[in-house]
Fold this protein.
Amino acid sequence: MSDQPREPSVLAGLPAFAWDSARSVSYEVAVEAISQAAAAYTVLIQHAQHRGDTAEAERLRTARTACSRERDRLDGADDAAVRAATATYRMLTEDLRARVR
């Protein structure tokens, strides 16, 4: 063995919280709902670009970026936020997809 001190684990600084399968699945569903909204924005961006509507394409890019930020900020330990994100982004995705049809 080496006499060198061991580096602390990168996990050592993470906060502890109760985690179970249901919470894990709920969090993943919320992340997927946000990702689906971002994907729907991408389709609308492509349509706007095809029409030459650069202002609309930029507005849609800003909205898509907001989705990414929301996904990154989502706290899997916050059950209410996870439920709200799932509901909000499922509805948003339906609305965005309806605009494509």
